């Protein structure tokens, strides 16, 4: 079970490492886009402010009320969507341009029409950049938090979980080796004792057999001597 946990920890560490690398690459790409978009945003806002000044100068101060009377609904809307990067959901914003209104196309025909349309185009571009910048910064913050969380998990697996499991496995192996050595030593002792007991039994059997043989020989000798004595002491027949 511990080896299975170690294998799972190693695989998890490798996957989280790949995920952290993918998130870091995305993070750097978003950071570069943010820098470029901010630079473009500054130039666009500068041009938009200048075009607004031109529109006000050409159309007069009353052009503001004319524009507000001709606009009833917004032509640019923002929709929140979700982007998935290596399993991390990043909130982004999508700009929806519903097109220009016919009344706005006719606004400023008397005077300042060109400057007004130019001002509108400049601010439309500024709004698009602003939405893009907001989307990038929101994704940037969410990605930064995801990278921190993933790196914490990677470090925990690499510096805490894996060493702990490896030390546990090493300790168990050492204990098993020690038990194996003890069992081997015990078996050697048992075999040696059995061998000594067997040798002792064989010696006792040999001694017993030797004693039985000596006793048999003694009895056999006595029996033969008795028979000889009886055969040698035959008395002569007496004749009356």
Give a brief outline of the structure.
The chain is mainly α and 240 residues long. Helix content is 80%, strand content 8%. The protein is built from four helices and two strands, in the order H-H-E-E-H-H.
What can you see in these coordinates?
By secondary structure, the chain is mainly α. Helix content is 80%, strand content 8%. The chain is built from 4 helices and 2 strands; from the N terminus they run H-H-E-E-H-H. It has helices at residues 2-59, 63-70, 102-106, 113-232, and strands spanning 76-85, 88-97. It has a two-stranded antiparallel sheet. A hairpin with a 2-residue loop joins strand 1 and strand 2. The mean pLDDT is 79.
Features:
two-stranded antiparallel sheet; rod-shaped; 240 residues; 2 strands; mainly alpha
pLDDT averaged residue by residue: 79
Helix content: over 70%
Strand order of the largest sheet: 1-2
**Low-confidence residue ranges:** none
Give the biggest sheet: 2 strands, antiparallel
- Rounded to the nearest angstrom, the radius of gyration is 54 Å
Query: Pairing-aware structural class of the strands and helices?
Result: mainly alpha
Assembly state of the chains shown: single chain
């Amino acid at each position: 079970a511990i080896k299975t946990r170690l294998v799972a920890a190693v695989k998890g560490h490798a996957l989280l490492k790949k995920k952290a690398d993918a998130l870091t690459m995305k993070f750097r790409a978003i950071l570069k886009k943010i820098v470029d978009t901010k630079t473009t945003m500054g130039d666009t806002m500068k041009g938009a402010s200048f075009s607004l000044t031109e529109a006000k100068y050409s159309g007069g101060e009353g052009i503001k009320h004319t524009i507000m009377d001709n606009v009833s609904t917004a032509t640019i809307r923002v929709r929140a969507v979700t982007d998935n990067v290596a399993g991390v959901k990043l909130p982004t914003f999508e700009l929806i341009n519903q097109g220009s209104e016919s009344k706005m196309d006719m606004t400023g025909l008397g005077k300042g029409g060109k400057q007004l349309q130019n001002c509108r185009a400049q601010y439309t571009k500024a709004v698009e950049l602003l939405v893009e910048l907001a989307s990038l910064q929101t994704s940037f913050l969410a990605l930064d938090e995801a990278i921190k969380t993933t790196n914490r998990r990677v470090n925990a697996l690499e510096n805490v979980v894996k060493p702990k499991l490896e030390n546990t496995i090493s300790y168990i192996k050492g204990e098993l080796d020690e038990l194996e050595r003890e069992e081997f030593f015990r078996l050697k002792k048992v075999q040696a004792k059995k061998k000594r007991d067997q040798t002792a039994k064989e010696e006792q059997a040999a001694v017993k057999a030797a004693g039985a043989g000596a006793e048999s020989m003694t009895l056999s000798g006595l029996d033969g001597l008795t028979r000889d004595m009886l055969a040698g002491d035959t008395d002569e027949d007496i004749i009356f």
